[in-house]
Design goal:
By secondary structure, the chain is α/β, with parallel strands linked by helices. The protein contains 15 helices and twelve strands. Helix 4 (126-137) runs antiparallel to helix 5 (141-151). The longest helix is centred in the middle third of the chain and has 25 residues, at 154-178. The two termini are 41 Å apart.
């Protein structure tokens, strides 16, 4: 890790009342001394100082600001850190950042470098760092909630527990490799197998979660399908409460799939308006229909929309191979008779009029409840990244081939690879910890 002191603007660059410049590294106190009126020999950590920020050489005033000092290791990065809370004008920010760039052994931070230093200094593991990144990117309340869970170390605790159990097993196996004349006692052998079996079952259960975890980060996919002029574009506009797509009575107006991002009940969703499904000779419209079918196959929820004023028995052959949740929605109920509405009620379809905003709340609430139901009781431990899933699958593969009937060196290698796979998630690597476990568990010196 670089020994340079780093700095960066931690707030958005532009016009604002207050901006924060963060500095981390061994030169922090020198910087405070050179650029402010603070006597660093008397400075107290975690106290706010209102002071002048000046140029190092000429002492020209740049701004009046609050300066906070965090002494290592009690800081975000684990190093000495200071924050300059200055006025957020472009002129002020440019002048302070330019002055910092002129100081010796001080440089602009690389993307993510503050968090990287926090990781290297064991202030957080990789899952917590990625939870922080998710929190910064959070656009909905549920994304915020689960990012905070991850930042608090929920995943770290879960994965570290599994890894520690496997490391303990590995320490036993390594000990018997070093002392081949000793047989593994039956009670220890049973303990090893029980531990491995328990970890295996818990990982399998964890992996059985569906893709709700990744969807929470990237958005649940909702696709609206139906015949031409069923009112798909009108429904999109009603759901997002704005004119997001073109509405026309001309059949085939929507030729491509149009994605709209939306916060629905705190959950991120991507609603896709697709081309109307019908027989056509138009090559461009045909292509749009094929795209619609691809979108349906990838969707978490499909809204099967039909014009109830034209057809009360609309068929959706395009859904014959789809295994996800489908909402059958009858549109244009403002044109129906009471008898026709009763027929729709018998089918338990959702009734709406996209044009007059009728039934939209019921449809929205049904979608939100479906998304909520997709979360399991273990949803505090979401596999929020594909790399977590791949690493856990790799761990599981090595555990599944482990047994004590093979040569002990090979059995130990299976567990070592399983430990390493989990370590990829949190950033842990086994170095001396196995030896520590050995010497802590066996009286080898006696």
């Amino acid at each position: 890790m670089s020994s340079s002191t780093i700095y960066a603007l931690s707030t958005v660059y532009g016009k604002s009342g207050v901006a924060v410049i963060r500095i981390s590294g061994s030169e922090v106190l020198n910087i405070i001394s050179q650029m402010s009126d603070i006597n660093v020999s008397m400075i107290k950590p975690r106290h706010a100082y209102f002071t002048s920020i000046r140029k190092k050489e000429t002492k020209e005033l740049l701004d009046k600001a609050l300066v906070l000092y965090f002494k290592a290791p009690h800081s975000f990065t684990g190093e000495d850190v200071t924050e300059i809370q200055c006025h957020g004008s472009k002129a002020v920010l440019t002048s302070i950042l330019n002055e910092l760039s002129k100081l010796d052994n001080v440089r602009l931070a690389e993307p993510g470098e503050f968090s990287k230093r926090a990781f290297y200094n064991q202030k957080m593991d990789l899952t917590e760092a990625e939870g922080l990144a998710d929190l910064i990117d959070a656009e909905t309340t549920m994304q915020q909630k689960y990012a905070l869970h991850q930042m608090e170390g929920n995943l770290r605790t879960l994965y570290s527990t599994w890894r520690e159990n496997l490391v303990k097993v590995l320490s036993y196996l390594e000990a018997f490799i070093d002392f081949p004349e000793e047989d593994i006692p039956e009670n220890l052998s049973e303990n090893i197998l029980n531990t491995v079996f328990k970890v295996k079952n818990e990982i399998e259960k964890h992996l059985q979660q569906n893709n709700v975890n990744e969807r929470l980060r990237n958005g649940f996919r909702i696709v609206i399908t139906g015949e031409t002029n069923a009112g798909k574009s009108s429904l999109i506009n009603a759901l997002v409460k704005r004119n997001a797509v073109i509405v026309s009575d001309i059949a085939g107006t929507t030729r491509d799939a149009i994605d709209i991002n939306l916060d629905m009940g705190g959950y991120p969703v991507i609603i896709t308006d697709t081309a109307g499904i019908r027989e056509t000779e138009n090559p461009i419209e045909k292509q749009g229909i094929e795209i619609a079918k691809e979108k349906i196959s990838d969707a978490d929820i499909v809204i099967a929309l039909y014009d109830a004023s034209r057809n009360l028995n609309s068929e959706f052959k395009v859904l014959k191979d789809y295994n996800g949740k489908v909402f059958y929605v009858a549109n244009k109920i403002d044109k129906l008779t009471s008898e026709q509405i009763n027929n729709i009620d018998d089918k338990k379809h959702i009734k709406i009029s996209a044009k007059y905003n009728q039934g939209i709340d019921e449809l929205t609430n049904s979608i939100i409840e479906t998304i909520k139901d997709s979360f399991s009781t273990t949803s505090n431990y979401l596999i929020t990244r594909i790399r977590y899933r791949k690493a856990l699958e790799e761990c599981l593969e090595n555990i599944e081939i482990f047994n004590l009937n093979k040569e002990i060196e090979l059995a130990a290698e299976d567990i070592r690879l399983a430990c390493r796979a989990i370590g990829k998630i949190t950033g842990s690597v086994e170095v001396n910890e196995i030896l520590d476990k050995i010497f802590g568990s066996f009286c080898i010196g006696k």
